[in-house]
Amino acid sequence: LMRSIRTLHLRAQRQSETAARLAAWLHGGTGAGGAAHPLAGLVHAVHHASLPSSPCHEVARRQMPGGFGGCLAVELGTEDAARALPGQLRLFKDATSLGGVESLIEWRRKYDDAVSPLLLRVSIGLEDYE
């Protein structure tokens, strides 16, 4: 436990930075990036406090000086797309967990009927962004 605690701040910083970059790129697929974005029309919304359009951006910026966290949520345009995407990815594992060293994605509706069927929950690991 002590060995992992010693590097926690480095891991959390890396995950937060990668999550912010990914959130910004995905946000471009909502129409903010124009029709040329490879995800144009597929991504409906991206939720991460690092995005200036987030309603909690300013509060998070003041309260979280080390970054905005390694988890984000993405809403796709259709339920079918949201249900299928986690099983089609190679780098992200289709699993329910948060804060691990590997990147995970889940279609939350599979476990909770009260959640939007368009929602994917993403937990960023330590993989390189590129």
Quote the beta fraction: 15-25%
Q: Given the structure, what is the number of helices? A: 4
Largest sheet: 5 strands, mixed
Spatial order of the strands in the main sheet? 1-2-5-4-3
Low-confidence parts: none
Number of strands: 5
Q: Kindly provide the radius of gyration, computed on alpha-carbon positions and rounded to a whole number of angstroms.
A: 15 Å
Q: In sequence order, what are the helices and strands, one letter per element?
A: HHEHEHEEE
Determine the N-to-C terminus distance.
30 Å
Walk me through this protein's architecture.
The protein contains four helices and five strands, in the order H-H-E-H-E-H-E-E-E. The chain is α+β, with helices and mostly antiparallel strands and 130 residues long.
Blueprint of the fold:
Blueprint: H1 2-6, H2 8-27, E1 43-47, H3 57-63, E2 71-76, H4 79-88, E3 93-94, E4 104-107, E5 119-123
Parallel strand pairs: 3-4
Antiparallel strand pairs: 1-2, 2-5, 4-5
Label this structure with key terms:
globular, five-stranded mixed β-sheet, 130 residues, alpha+beta
Short description:
The protein has 130 residues and is of the alpha+beta class. It contains 4 helices and 5 strands, in the order ααβαβαβββ.
